[in-house]
Amino acid sequence: MITSVRNLFALGCLLLATHLGATEIAKVNLPDQVKPDGIDQVLQLNGAGIRYKFIFKIYIGALYLPEKQNSAEEIVASSQPKRILMHFLYDRVTKQDLDKAWREGFAANHDEQIMRQLEDRIQRFSALFSDLVEGDEVWLDNIPGMGTRVSVNGELRGTIPGDDFYPALLRIWIGSEPVTTALKRSMLGQEQ
Questions:
Q1: Burial environment of residue 125 by CB neighbours within 10 A (0 to 12, 13 to 18, 19 or more)
Q2: Are residues 132 and 123 in contact, defined by beta-carbon separation less than 8 angstroms?
Q3: Cα–chain center distance at 90
Q4: 163 in Cβ contact with 79 (< 8 Å)
Q5: Which helix (H) or strand (E) segment is 104 a member of?
Q6: Which residues have a Cβ under 8 Å from the Cβ of 108 and sit 6 or more positions away?
C-alpha cells in the first residue's frame, strides 16, 4: 500500500513537472524557454497565438526572444538571437499555399526596392519547404553572424545568409501589415 502511494505520488510529481515551463494553446504545449543550437543563451517565450484563415486554425505562431519585449520596432531592429515557432494545426498546407503566403507576407511589409534585394533569398527560403501537415513544427532561428536557419520537425533544412533577411521575415508577423493583427498582438505578448 505504501509503495503504491509513493508510486502514485511520484507519477503525480512527474505529470506536474511536464506541465511546468510550458504554455498550452489549442491543446499544444509550447515550451516557455528554448535553447537553439549555436546560440549561447536561452530564449524566452515572448508570446504566441493562432493563425486563423476564415474559421480554420492553420498554425500556432510563437516568438522567442532573449528577454520579453512588446515593441515590434525594437524586436525587428534587434540583432539578438530569436526564434519563430510555427506548429501546424491544419490537416495539410501545400507547398504552393506556403510559397504564396511567404511572398504575400514579404510584399505586404516591404517596398519594391527591398523586395528586389531579397528576391533570390526569398526563393531559396521558399524552396526549403514542402507540404506541411498537422503536428509539423517549423523553427525559424535568427543566428547572429550566420543568418536565418530553417528547421522542420527538428531537421535542418538550410540557412539563408544576411543580417537583413530575418528582420524582413519577422515583419510578416509583427510588421506594419502583419498576417493578422490578432496574431501580431499575441506574439508581442499584448492583451487581446
A1: buried
A2: no
A3: 16
A4: yes
A5: helix 95-109
A6: 172, 175, 177
Reference 60, options 31, 83, 89, 33; nearest CA is 89
What is the number of alpha carbons within 13 Å of residue 16 lying toward its C-beta? 6
The answer to whether 14 and 142 have CB atoms below 8 angstroms apart is: no
pLDDT digits (tens, 9 = 90+) for 96-106: 999 999 999 99
Domain residues of the chain, as ranges? 23-187
Angle ∠(119,81,104) on CA atoms, nearest 5: 30
Contact predicate 165/154, CB 8 Å = no
The model's pTM is: 0.88
CATH class, range 23-187: alpha beta
Angle between helices 112-126 and 95-109 (to 10 degrees): 160
**Secondary-structure percent of the chain, ordered helix, strand, coil, rounded to 5:** 35, 30, 30
Q: Return d(Cα 42, Cα 150) in angstroms, integer.
A: 18
Q: CA 71 to CA 189: how far, in whole Å?
A: 10
Cell triple for residue 160?
A: 539563408
- Tell which residue, 125, 127, 128, 149, has the closest CA to residue 139: 149
Tell me the pLDDT tens digit for each residue of 111-137: 999 999 999 999 999 999 999 999 999
26 phi-psi bin (left φ>0, alpha ψ -120 to 50, beta other) = left
